[in-house]
Amino acid sequence: MIDVAVIGAGPNGLAAAAVAARAGLNVQVYEANDSIGGAARTQSLNGSEAIFDLGSAVHPMALQSPAMRELGVHQKVDFITPEISFAHVLDERTAYAYKDLERTVEELGGEDGQIYRRLVQPLVHQIDQISDTLLNTLLKVPSHPLALATFAASTVGGMGLKDVFSKKYERAAALYSGCAAHVAGGSRGPANAGAGLFLAATAHAKGWPIPLGGSQAISNALAAEATAHGAQIHTGVRVNHIDELAAQNILFDTSAEEAAKLSTGHLPHQLTSAMSTTRRSPGSCVVHFVLSEPVPWRDQALSTAGTVHLGGTAKQVGAAERTANRRGAANPFMIVAQPSLFDDSRAPAGQHVIWAYCHVPLDSSQDMRQEIQTMINKAAPGFSEIILEAHVVTAQDLERQNAALIGGDLSGGTMDLLGTIKRPRISLDPWYLLSKGLYLISSAAPPGPSVHGMGGFLGAQSMLKREYNIKNWKSVK
């Protein structure tokens, strides 16, 4: 009998495998797809000569993550951090979030610059302490209570800026609202505001990095760490029920629904019911474009930005996001990543790829290419004329690519305040599924979505402590 079986080889599953293997356990990883990485995969589509990030393309949390640091990803992967972390196009105006906060404040100017500094600067100065708190379960006694208090105060201020004073501080509010809109649904609550602030702060702390070679480089680095310590990874292997596995412990890097299904007969009824009816955020529609030249932005400074937000003012962004809960917005808030500006391995010589997406209703089959193309054309006249290829991935397609993305929900479940705490249950040890040896370690568990590997990192440590009384996996010889 093996010690640990990990179902799913996304960043969380691979991080968990690396931790367990480094603790000296026999670890087997089972991935239904033919390649590892989950939402952190990079590959060709439809025979294209270009390669595309199938999930996220820019990785602020990878640089903040203790898992990535401890498991050697920061040493194994070349991260490129653009001078402009992200920019937000309002109309004829653009707001820029430079990695340099002072330059950002100067460019915003006047009261906009000052309000942005007051919100973000305290978080930038304490980013590592705040990361240690937020990249964990929120019910844990914080190691840095003063940093958490600072974050809470800024969150209240962020809610005010985005939802009350957005007209007075229009450019600052738009810049911040674009970060908050990474959390789908347009919530006006503290979880949305806090997530947006944390994301904005990372832009001025360590930047929003693009991994050389694509997101796959992160997954490959985690896999290399796991296999270097004896873990074995099996791709193209679908597990239908945990009874198939001769394993003492099983860690699920899957959706909560799939973990409940695979564990039928082993979990308490109430927990099974809760996991099987996970509250979901809207889905996403992604379009991968191959271009004959870089995007012809009207504002040429956007050609140095890793990420561009399109969607107008904070009020317009919020309205578009709330519309996305019910139907695809005609003028959606959208995110454009431009990796080939910084990494020429993504496309044939002279060509470029961009990755663009917007939110749509959960499980939608809606093709948003035209809406996305129209939005980019407004900010980049002539964009349509340089398109060589366009590969549309609907919300339903996202789930087909990666079964953990139920209905195209990239968040692993709704990220409002309740959804952040009850993930999948309210507990100091939420990864443990109340049945010996069973643990949920995906984005459906704390700390939630993004490529940081922390669900697997923390879930594996929970397993080691509970099942083997190993409290410090790094000390095991």
Overview of this protein structure:
The protein is built from 18 helices and 16 strands. It has 477 residues and is an alpha/beta fold. The chain has a domain at 2-40 and 60-76 and 211-280 and 412-475: FAD/NAD(P)-binding domain (3-Layer(bba) Sandwich). It has a 7-stranded mixed beta sheet with strand order 7-6-12-13-14-11-15. Strands 9-2-1-10-16 form a 5-stranded parallel beta sheet, with helices on one face. The longest helix has 19 residues, at 145-163. 58% of the residues are buried. GO terms for molecular function: oxidoreductase activity. This is Pyridine nucleotide-disulfide oxidoreductase domain-containing protein 2. Interacts with COX5B; this interaction may contribute to localize PYROXD2 to the inner face of the inner mitochondrial membrane. Probable oxidoreductase that may play a role as regulator of mitochondrial function.
The computed structural class is alpha/beta
Specify Rg, calculated over alpha carbons. 21 Å
CATH superfamily of the domain at 2-40 and 60-76 and 211-280 and 412-475: FAD/NAD(P)-binding domain
Question: What would CATH call the architecture of the domain at 2-40 and 60-76 and 211-280 and 412-475?
Answer: 3-Layer(bba) Sandwich
Distinctive features:
seven-stranded mixed β-sheet, about 475 residues, FAD/NAD(P)-binding domain, alpha/beta, Pyridine nucleotide-disulfide oxidoreductase domain-containing protein 2, single chain, Amino_oxidase, FAD/NAD-bd_sf, 18 helices, oxidoreductase activity
